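[job 4471] stage=fold_predict status=RUNNING
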Amino acid sequence: MAGDAPDDAAFRALLDQVARARGFACGNYKDGCLKRRVAVRMRARGVTEYGAYAALLARDPVEYDHLMDALTINVTRLYRDAAVWDLFAEMVLPTLWTLRGASRFTAWSAGCASGEELYTLAAILHQHATRTGTLRQLLHTSVIGTDIDPASLRAAERGEYSADACSELPVPLRDRYFGTKAPHRASAELRALVRVERRDLLLDEAPADALQLITCRNVLIYLDRDGQERILRRFHAALAPGGVLILGKVESLFGAARALFEVVDQRQRIFRRSADA
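[job 4471] inference complete, writing structure tokens
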């Protein structure tokens, strides 16, 4: 079986080949996760050895697209984990929206996949601006989504989602910003707030400085400890004082990162950049 293959050298050579061909640096991803996902494609192509799969990639470059889909797969929905977004909208955003010294509001959805989280954020921000009579502030608001997978980024740019992808989205938000019928397409108001970029969290800098908000949900779990610490330090450096970080429900801070952030709500994995760090 591919997942149990003893030839670690062949596995590392395969990862190096993928990195050269597609710019996907796998070094800080957990081997177990990578092997399981590579094994999916190897079984699909009837290959049992890493070397044979590397040769297949060399003669059939289209297979790289399928492999990248497997390596970067991210199952998500609009407004996924409603309790997180409800708490953010009701208790966290009002303070962030008026953060002293901020000339603009910039949020970063790191590892945005096909954009569901990206447009969730845009909808919450637009709704808040509408409720508080601060629509003019949206002229200075950006929601930036980054990912390493070009296909996912193209989907995020389209901003078009199935009924299933909208199944956790509150109906008033869905009807207001995505329409009443599937496929649900993000409104022009949301699309004006959003931009997407290809960035590797492990290799590239943040897309902007002095960010008010970073969301990075269910990405760190695939990385080893060194990769996690590097990314958390990068998030801390990119956030404005008082800026907020939201992680996935099974992720948390550890080690030196605990001194960089203060807990806003541990259950919902919401943290604030520490003023002392």
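[job 4471] summary: The longest strand covers residues 239-247.
[job 4471] exit 0
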